[in-house]
Design goal:
Length: 336
């Protein structure tokens, strides 16, 4: 059994492509001392602004910070937000592959107003979803195949903003028919109802797994139907591996329609769950690409997720932070 440090040592030899909705996450940090005389709302005194990569760009940042050779295919506009996002990615050694830049289509921005470490509101700026489609340029297929030929794995990071389309998903799966060693990982958005049958890895969260399985939200106090969810998702989508992230209840590792391991959460302090799913799919995919088995990969991702939820705001996992947490020692005598 590979140790976690041996897995991490192999990361620089791995090449991964992330495909999906790139975003700029903007945070306005401030404080509130009074209520507005104009309406019953707080007046926020803005103290500082910070900008970080969000959406699929955060998945790419997680990979790059773990030492993976990372490429990112998505859309960012020819605007101030796009330039800022590309600068963040460039500074973190992410190779951004853009198929086209449409001058009238803005970069997607999520602005969060945070007061005393609590999110007060979120403001989204984006165009219509079809504006972000990237696989329509004449030379796209040729360029796309050239990128795919150089990577060990593809992560489809769908935030339902328009980059990930059925035609784009089909192109990836068609390529994989002739290149069966290519690992395809999908962080799905069930509301899109895209077909990704036969993916190497699916990583839905608790509510997404219910939607994928076609099961209604259980009544409060009743048990989450994990076994049934695992069975139904396997019947419908046939993923080789399924990892359901369950928040405070950790994560479930499933194979062949059965739960093979349930990992309790490693998080001791949770300040913000933003981006935790990005960290999970990035870490599991990277570990699988080194030859680790799914339980080892999920255990490592579980620890990586514990690192990121201890920060306020979207934050990728850092390799030294992950190694520090591993050095603190962990018990892996998990129950089934």
């Amino acid at each position: 059994m590979l140790t976690f440090f041996k897995i991490i040592e192999k990361f620089p030899k791995v090449n991964i492509l992330v495909i999906g909705d790139m975003m700029l996450d903007h945070y306005i940090w401030g404080d509130v001392y009074r209520i507005s005389p104009e309406a019953p709302v707080p007046v926020v005194y803005a103290e500082r602004d910070t900008y970080v990569a969000g959406g699929s760009a955060n998945v790419a940042l997680n990979l790059a910070n773990l030492g993976i050779n990372t490429s990112l295919l998505g859309y960012s506009g020819n605007d101030e937000a796009g330039k800022r996002l590309l600068e963040i990615l460039d500074n973190n050694d992410v190779n951004v592959v853009q198929s086209c830049v449409k001058h009238d289509v803005p970069t997607i921005i999520k602005t969060r107003v945070v007061v005393r470490n609590q999110q007060l509101c979120r403001i989204d700026r984006e165009a219509k979803h079809d504006a972000y489609c990237i696989d329509v340029t004449p030379d796209f297929d040729e360029t796309f195949h050239a990128i795919l030929s150089k990577v060990d794995a593809v992560i489809i990071s769908d935030y339902a903003k328009g980059v990930v389309t059925q035609s784009l998903v089909d192109k990836i799966f068609d390529y994989s028919k002739f290149n069966p060693d290519l690992l395809i990982s999908v962080d799905p958005k069930p509301t899109r109802q895209l077909s990704f049958k036969g993916a190497g890895l699916l990583t839905p969260n608790r509510s997404e797994a219910l939607l994928l399985a076609g099961i209604a939200e259980p009544y409060p106090g009743t048990e989450y139907p994990l076994e049934e969810i695992c069975k139904r998702i396997h019947e419908k989508y046939e993923p080789k591996l399924l990892v359901v992230t369950l928040g405070a209840d950790g994560m479930a590792v499933c194979q062949q329609g059965k739960v093979i391991r349930h990992l309790p959460t490693e998080a001791k302090e949770v300040y913000d769950v933003s981006g935790a799913g990005d960290t999970v799919i990035a870490t599991i995919t990277a570990a699988l690409a080194t030859g680790a088995d799914i339980v080892e990969a999920a255990q490592l991702a579980n620890i990586a997720a514990a690192c990121v939820v201890s920060h306020v705001g979207t934050a990728p996992v850092l390799q030294n932070e992950l190694e520090d947490k591993l050095n603190q020692g962990h018990s892996y005598d998990y129950h089934h």
